[in-house]
Amino acid sequence: MIDVTDLEWLAPLASFHFARPLWLLALPLVLLLCWRIRRPGVAAAVTYSSLDLLKEAQKRAGSRRTSRLRLVRALALTLIVLSLAQPRIEKGRDEDNTEGIDILLVLDASRSMDSQDFDFDGEKISRRAALQRVIGDFIDNRARDRIGIVAFAERPYLISPLTLDHSWMMDALAEMRTSLGTAIGSGVEAAVDLLRKSESPNKVIIAVTDGLNTSGVDPLESARTARRFGMRLYTIGVVSYQDMRTQDLDAVTLSHMARMTGGQFFQATSGESMQAIYRQIDELERREFKRSRLRSFTELFAGFAIPAFVLLLLELLAVQGRRMRFP
Predict the structure, then answer these.
(1) Which of 72, 66, 64, 61 is nearest to 40 (CA)?
(2) pTM of the model
């Protein structure tokens, strides 16, 4: 019984292919020409009073030599055609070097986010709980994106750096605790500082708050900083139906922040509306990025071309040798 490990040396052959396979269409024509073209006979080197006795033997010997030379020529031309088809074996590749975007979630961690006034699937839950549930669904659809989280109350703090380990990030988010204060501008500025270190050409900030800015950096100033570094900012205002007419949310400022960076402002009044907002952002950021696939090959041109020219040289020498006669 053959051990599979004994066949590992055959693995590279699985990626064998021709880079220019159209050249292979010339093979039937080459073989047909080699079969039909015959070389003229060669005169005898010794003169006899009569050639009747040697005629049949000479014919058989010449036929065998011609067949061998024709076979050598056919093999040589076949190898030349195969080499022109550019045979090669793929050695390896590095994929998806530029795929995905970097997203920073900037989340309000003020005490008002614990208010139990959000409807979600027929039950009343807190704004923070609804936000965490919606973010979980959003992240599940962004497996190739690096995502990080910055929370803010009186001042911003890091919950998770940019990472592809979204499961760990959600565990860290579950440990978030609320406190007094709402530093929206400082939270966005902290996200900008993190994204500035990223080499991704596409950087997005999604800021969520349910209150007015009470401390830290001016929110509009932080948005200008994000714009300067080419980052898109989406802002989401969280407010219950009962509070929609109150002055607890600065919708004008949030809208201006988003517009100046090429993003959008949304207002969530329930768990379902927040879910719809994140789905819309998800669609807006579903961009097709050109993937960089760096592939390397072992080119086999020489392995076919060199034997072909050696065979043609041998045929030429054989023909010349037949034409040379000694006195």
Answers:
(1) 66
(2) 0.58
Query: Residue 55: how many CB atoms within 10 A of its CB?
Result: 11
Residue 102, token pair as written in the block? 């970097």
119 torsion bin: left (phi>0), alpha (psi -120 to 50), beta (else): beta
∠ Cα 300 303 304 (to 5°): 95
Q: Note whether 196 and 229 are within 8 A (CB).
A: yes
Which is it for strands 294-299 and 87-94: parallel, antiparallel or unpaired? antiparallel
Tell me the pLDDT tens digit for each residue of 117-154.
888 877 888 888 888 889 988 888 888 889 999 999 99
So what's the pLDDT on residue 29?
82
Task: Please say whether the beta carbons of 182 and 212 come within 8 A.
Answer: yes
The pLDDT of residue 96 is: 46
| Mean pLDDT for the chain overall | 78
Q: What is the DSSP string of 26-62?
A: GHHHHHHHHHH--PPP---SS--S--HHHHHHHHHHH
Domains in the chain with CATH codes:
4-36+57-93+295-323 (no CATH), 102-284 (3.40.50.410)
The confidence score (pLDDT) of residue 310 equals 83
CB 281, CB 246: distance < 8 Å:
no
185-201 core/surface letters (b: 16 or more CB in 10 A; e: else): bbbbbbbbebbeebebe
* 311 Cβ neighbours under 8 A, 6+ residues apart: 72, 73, 75, 76, 79
Backbone torsions φ then ψ of 88, nearest 5 degrees: -160, 165
Give CA–CA dist 80/27, Å, rounded: 10
At residue 235, the pLDDT reads 93
DSSP state, 122? T
